[in-house]
Every structure is written in structure tokens, then in C-alpha cells.
Description:
- By secondary structure, the protein is of the alpha/beta class.
- Among the domains are: 10-163, P-loop containing nucleotide triphosphate hydrolases (Rossmann fold, 3-Layer(aba) Sandwich); 169-230; 420-555, Serine Threonine Protein Phosphatase 5, Tetratricopeptide repeat (Alpha Horseshoe); 557-672, Serine Threonine Protein Phosphatase 5, Tetratricopeptide repeat (Alpha Horseshoe), CATH 1.25.40; 823-885, Arc Repressor Mutant, subunit A, CATH 1.10.10.10.
- The chain is 64% helix and 6% strand.
- The strands form 4 sheets. Strands 2-3-4-1-5 form a 5-stranded parallel β-sheet, sandwiched between helices. A 3-stranded antiparallel β-sheet has the order 8-10-9.
- GO terms for molecular function: adenylate cyclase activity; ATP binding; DNA binding.
Amino acid sequence: MGPWHFVGRADELRRIVESATSEDRRGIILSGTAGIGKTRLLREAVAMLPTDRYAVWTATANIASAGLPFGGLAQVLPGDQPIGVSPAGLLRWAVEALHRQAGGRPIVLAIDDAHLLDPSSAALVYLIARDEHATVLGTLRSGEQVPLPIRALWTDDLVGHAELAPLPANDSKALLVEMLEGPIDSASAERLWRMSAGNPLLLRELVIAASGSRELTRAYGVWRWTGQFDLEPRLTDLIDARIGDLSDDVRGVVELVAFGEPIGLSMLIKATDEEAVESAEERGLIRVVASDRRRHVRLAHPLYGEVVRQRCPVTRTMRLKARLAALVEETGARRRDDLLRMAVWRLDSGTARDPIVLLHAGAQAFSRYNVHLAARLARAALDNGGGFDAADLLATILMFSDQSEEALPVLESVRDKIDSDQRRSRWLVVRGLVSYWGLGRESAVHEIARDADTVADPGYRARVHSFEAIMRMHRLESAEALRLSRAIVDRPAAPVAARALAQCVIAHVQAVRGELDASARTTTGVQDDAPLWRADMPYLQLALELARGTRLAIAGDLAGIDAVAADEFADLADAGDFRLGSGYLSVVRAQAARLRGQAGEALRGSLQACAVLATSRVFAGLAHAERAYAAALLGDADEAAIAMADSDRTQTPGMAVVYPWREQARAWVAACAGDVEGAITMLVALVERLRADDFAGHEVLALYDLVRLGCATLPINWPDGAVEAQTVTERLDELVGVVDGPVAELMVRHARAAGDGVALLTVADAFTERGLLLFAAEATAMAVVRLRAANAGGERSEASARLGDLLARCDALRTPALRAARPMLSERERQIARLAAAGVASKQIADQLFLSTRTVENHLQRVYSKLGVTSRSELAHALRALPEP
């Protein structure tokens, strides 16, 4: 792994540069822990200082030179040090020598690791800082002894002093992208950031360790980390240097916290020794955190725990975990997490005997979407005699961890234990889940419909029918899905989870039909009841997110999508590696980025979804379709075609409900490849199919795609012949009364204004207000074309400028509407236009390009004509709207 580009720390970088260049030039000293990035930050800041205005010198203090007079500044002082001069005389000589070398420029002296400076160098730095023509910048390692002259720099108010904070999560992710030379999925980036505690050096060593143990893998260009790694010597050396030598009693404290954090302070003292706990806290090995009325203890750094846990002998590890479990049992396991933690400790220590405890802990882990831990506990419960309930839970979890082939034998092993309607309903439901979504067997729908009649109790039968309903919805049997779902909702005997799942079906159908307000109310009700159904059916959240995500994407509700992405479920799904949840939410985020005109971010998000869903049968086809759409918007026809082929390969018949998104993407892939007529044909066929399926919400989007391709007046001849042909605009106008929300109205306004440049600009403004910059840019581009055709000079120039501003906020989009508004310039015209826009005079341009002034002026006139501008002041705006050659 080589060096990487500097990322993040923008505020800190600006502060250092300003400290050296502002009028008061006070300078600044940065403190921070080892590896936090002090040296790199100082080096980057110094590199930004103009050496023609400042005499910039850098020095790095070190232990080797700490005992030599002026050893720390030997890199900047002249080599002809006078002999026989007093210490005070040497200081005066050094100051004068630096000023002579500066040649009248203000001095900037940058000292890395200033805590290692020898006394003479430290005194000289202090004197330089007092000089009104000099500035001192420096770094210190926190916790080290600092020479008094250096400490006096900020205590005497000669320089500022600040502690360098750990990297925030976003900067850490950007650094990971640099290290790995490619994107990394959000959950992995979050785990690595937390594990490194925002320390760049530790982050690098973690990546190296994870790569060496093959726990860091790449799929579809996106890196993913399992959370595991083997200790590498360099990493352990770094941690050992921080931990230091431990006495047996302090080691006992650290080990118990490593396996039990967060652990109550009173419990820790009871299990170890109060003096040892105090000593561990004083040495910075543990920290005490207040939580409500309790005090919990954690290790001071997450990697301390990893090193301690991996080094602890197996027998001692088992003893410590058994001790932790016993301590929690003695206190009565009163906290919410106690049951789960206690069960895991019992399992790891080989002392787990009670299948009921293991079963309840597994269900609790699954309700938090920690699928791997839930599977471990459920399997242990089954092995310890948990019977039907344990098999039911384990088979469900195996399905959601992409191990459906293993789930069916687990279910079959307890078929003979079905002795009640309650058990029969649960068994039928899990078998249906595994067969339909896990194994892709469409016959599962007919089987669950047939076998529902074998459940006599109406409440438990409603549970079975709720799964039949959602299967039928996914198969596009919307009418039957609605009938079943409404019957369940109207049945008082139906369990809460069955009613909630039926409501998710209703909400989804409402969304695709354009009943967006009703769908929002339905999903809100389901979410409000989450505490009542999550313990029984945590995976119901997927159905809720699919209904909610579909509605928000159809509505173009970017704020709503952002709220979903920030919801607790997104964090739990990422942290617990619940891939179906995190993968689908990545798709929704990608859709929002696409609508914002951030096609590059949409492509990265969809690639992340593809990587997460690489082994999934459920949402993989949708993820690849979104990837294809984003690539098409960026003009990458080859990548778009590959992604669409991957979508076709991974799509299953059981997920037919997502076909509108996939077929829209297919049309834009064709348009990207230059087959606009083919794209139009695909979209017309899609509109006809959506109308037949009564998917008015999706139909509006497909009709609007036709508007975006310049087909607002295109007639649609409905295949059934019962309806007269309508134009795209007429059909859109008709659907406005059906589809809720302001975005549908904006799409109709765009269609109506297709031939009016001024009206198109008004529509573009409305799209911009909602953050839908892709649509705003295309509407503006169409306005440019219409105004150019009308020879409306002033309005055309304004439209071109507005298009340039919009595209500056988007990625390099390549759609037919944008290409039509952005005439191609020759390479020579482009060169001349850029220089002219930068304010370079025609004669200077001519001299630079070895042309005559007349030739330059002629080229400029052609550029003005092509771009619809009249002056150089308008040229810069218009150039932003040009495609790259």
C-alpha cells in the first residue's frame, strides 16, 4: 500500500495556513496522539505557503538530536556555527542567520515533534516566535513532556494551541477510498472508522491486517470488510507501545473489560480490585462513561480490546466469559441487553445449557438484525434441545443470511413436532419464505395458498394468508393481494404481525397506483406499531421499506429518502450485516442521488448495493438496474450494457414487482448507446404494460421519460382498442388526477411547455426548488434549444447561463436533452473559448496558440454563435454546459 493523497481536515488546514499568513501571524501548535495525522497536516499546510512571499523552513525533531545543541534545527541553521561564543551569543547568531537567509521575507518556521527539541533549539523557537517578522507552526505528541520554551509559546500568547481531533467518519471513508484505490461499502467504512477511532495510522494498519487475512474482499469494484482480521506485528507493536507493561491485577481489569464492555463500574470493582481499576483508568487504558444513573467502563481504544482478546489464552478466555455471565446472573439481568450478552458469554465459555435462554437471545439478536449472532444462538438452542421453536428461528435466519439450502432440512427435521395451529402456521410461513424468496420457487405461492386451509384457527390462518398476499403482490397479482390483505386487516383475530404485513402489501399497491398520500399513512401506521411486531417478525421491516422506498422514489421525495437512510433500521442493518436491508437501502439512496443529478454518487451507491447483494435472489436485479441507469446518465454505454445484463441474469420471477424500475433503466441504457428510437419504443411498451397493471404511479415516471426524450406529443395507441389514442401529454394530464403529489404536476407542466422555452425555464425552477436537478437541467436544456430555434438572443443567453450553473451542481451528465443543448466545439474552438473566458486578450491568445488575431476573432465569433452568447462575460457560464470531448 503506497502513499495516498491528502484528504479531509479542510478546516484545520485552513487554520494553519491562516495562522502563518494573516496580518497578526500568531502561528499555531497542534497536539495529538501518535498517528493522528499531525505530521501530514503540517506538511500539507507548509506546501501551500508561497515561498516567494515567505521564507519557509521545516525541521523535524527526533530523539537522536535531542541531546545536541541546536540539533533539532540543524536542518535550517547554517553549518558555520561560531566557536567560543556564549549560549546567549549563539542564540543571537542563530536568529540573525535565519533573517539573513530570509532575505527580507517573513519567516515561517515549521517544527514537527517539537516536544523532542533540544533546549537550545527550543529556546531559539521561542525567540523566533517573539519576532514580529516570524511565525512558528508546530506539532506535539499528546502526553509527552514538553520543553518549557515550547510550552511558553501558547501560555505567553505568542501562538495558538489546539488539539487535533480524530478523523470524522466521512474523512475516514475518503481516506479508505484513497488507501484501497476504490470505493468501500458504508458498513465496512463505519466499522473501520470505529475500530481505528479516527486515527489514520491505525486505520492503515487495520487495512493491511484485514487484507492479509483475506477478510477484505472486492465485488463489483466495492470493498467489503467482514470485521475480522489477524494481528500483524506492526499493528501489535503500535498497540503494545500504547498499552505498555501491565501488572497482573491491571491486566485482569483490562481483560475483563475487553470481554465484557460496556461493564458496570460497580460490577468491575466487585470482580477485580478497586485499586487496579483506578490504576487502569489513570494509565488511560479504560474510561468510565456515565449513562443515565449508571457508570459503565469501556476500553480507551477499540483496538486495545482486539489485541487483548486475540492474545488471551483460550482457557482464560472461557473462564473470564463464564465469570461475566455469572456476574450478570447474580445481579438479576435487569438491563435490556443483559440476556443477550449473558447468552453469548455462556455460549463462548462452553457453559450454555438452557435452550430457552439461547432461543430468546437469538430472537433478540435477530430483532436487532444481527444475523450472524442470531444464527449462532439459534443453532446452539437447537443443539441443546430447543426443538421446534429453535428450528423455526434458525431456518428463518438462514434464509436471510443467503443459506436457504440449509434452511429446508432444518424445517423438515421438526415436521413431526407440528402439534398445533400456531406451529403449523409458523412452519408454513417459514417454508414459504425459504422456498419463494430463498430458492426462487414460484410454486411456493400455490402451496401456501393450498396449505392455509389446513390451519383451523382463523388468527393463525391469517398469518399464512399474509405471506400469500405479499407473494402474490410480488408476482403482480395485485387484485388478489389486496383482497387477502384487506380481509386480514379487517379480521380482529389476526395477529399484529400478520396485520402489519398485510398493511405493507396495501401500502405498496397504493404507492404503485399513485395513491401516495394513502400509502404514506399506511406505512406510518405500520412503523408506529413496530414495537408490537418486531420481536415476532423482524424481517417485516423489509416489506415496510420496500413500500416506503417505492412511494418516496415515485414521489421524488428526496427529504423523505434522506430520513429513511438516517433511520435506526439503516444503522442496524449495516452494523448487523443484514444484507437484504442494507442492500435495498443502498438502492434507494442511489435513486435519490440520481434524481439530484449526482449520477457518480448513484453509480457508487448502486455498486455498493450490488456488492452487498452479490449472493441474494431478492433485490440484486434491482440493484444492477439502478447501476445501469446511473452509468447511462454518465454516458458510459459499455458499463451500462454490462450492468443491464447483470440485472437480467440476477432477476428472479418472484420479484416481478420491480419491473418498472428495470425497464426504465433498460430504455436509458439504449438511449446512452445512441438508440433513442429504441428507447422510445421500450418506454411506450412499458407505458402500455403499466396501464394494464394499473400502476399509475410508475406510469407517470415512464411517460415523463418520454417527455425527457422529446416525445411530449407522441401518440400512444392503446393495444386493447377500447380507448382512443392519446398523446403522452394528454395521458399525463389524465393521470394528474390519479397520482398524488406535486412532482406529477410538474411533469405534466413540463410536457405542456415542451415547445415554450420561457415556460420550460419556469418548470426548471420548480424542479430545482425540490432538489430534482436532473429534471431541472434537462428542462433548462430543452429551453435552450427552443430559444435558440426562436432566435431569442437575450433569453437564450440567460438560459445557457442557467444551464451552466445547474450542470456545475451535477455530475457530467450525458442525456439526449443535454447533448442537444450543448453543441460540440472543435478542440481549437474549445482552447480559444477557455482562454477568452479566463480574460485573456485575443492578441495574447493568438501569440500563445501561434495563430493570427483575425483567426482567433473568427473562432470566437463561431463559438458565440454556437453557444448563444454575446460577450466574454457570458462565455464562462456557457462553457460549463459543454460536454467534455
